[in-house]
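Schema walk-through. Below, the input block comes first and the output block second. Nothing else is stored per chain. Lengths vary across the set, and this one has 340 residues.
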Amino acid sequence: MPASPAWTRRVLNPTWYHGYYARPPFFEGWYYKMVTPDQRARYAIIPGIFLSDDPSKQHAFVQVFDGVSGRATYHRYPADQFQAARERFDVRIGANHFTEDHLTLSIDDNLRRVAADLRFEGLTPYPVTRFSPGIMGPFAWLPFMECYHGIVSLDHLVSGEFIDDDNRIDFGGGRGYIEKDWGQSFPAGWVWMQTNHFETLGTSLTASIAITPMLGSWFPGFIAALWHNGTLYRFTTYTGARTERLEIGDQTVLWVMRGLRHRLEIYAQRANAADLPGPTRHDMEMRVPETLNGAIRVCLTSLDDTRLPIFEGEGVCAGLEIAGDTERLRAAVDTSVKGT
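--- output ---
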């Protein structure tokens, strides 16, 4: 059957809510990262919804993660308190409101009291075309993927006030980043990293590699994007790039990718992580080790005759997740490299 116009519009607008007409299990969540100018306050706010055949498990949520202290709280709401516009990114969960350029929080329960009114300016959206609608590329058109990923903004300014219990924080002049995921479940294993705190203002890196199911099998699918000086450098499975090296240690991650015209080397320094709930096909389970205290060294090199570095730098206040069966992921990369 041909795709409906409504489904096509959602594919071409990855920031929108995709859960209309979705059958359980289904989840969708947005990830707002905000860092003050002095980097002394770092927060991730994660609103979302989990749909299940089991009424007792179906709910909306807002997660609040203090990336400096590691304190994480999960605020659960009845599913009917989740409201989303059909043809724009505009989500309400209880008294909380989320759009691409504005976030308001009003949480006061036995876990935490949080109030916020934050605005985002100068957004850097990920390009969307019909052939490649966002960072998923042509895979976004496949209706059977386990998990989809979208980038709302690679880098932007943050302004406004954030109150966490008795701590009042001014985010004026801070930097932010927004992404999202939706589908049936997070992968069985993945590595994810992000930073837009390089010495070069506006430079942003986001990269992930995961166990990706496909038609009864699986492969180590990856998507990586470096935004620098107004140019987006992409390294993805669907662009023909390949992973030359992936080493996952207790303290570091080394990941080297090679595209058609560029080579990207990433050296990430791990940090203490807090466990956050993440979706399986059955429930939201404690399976996402999250930190905003990582550091990522990046080297982008041209593969032309010069072989000169295009960009070298270290990003701090980095988000980093190493989760699930990463040994299976690393072994699959090794096998692929040996076979080339």
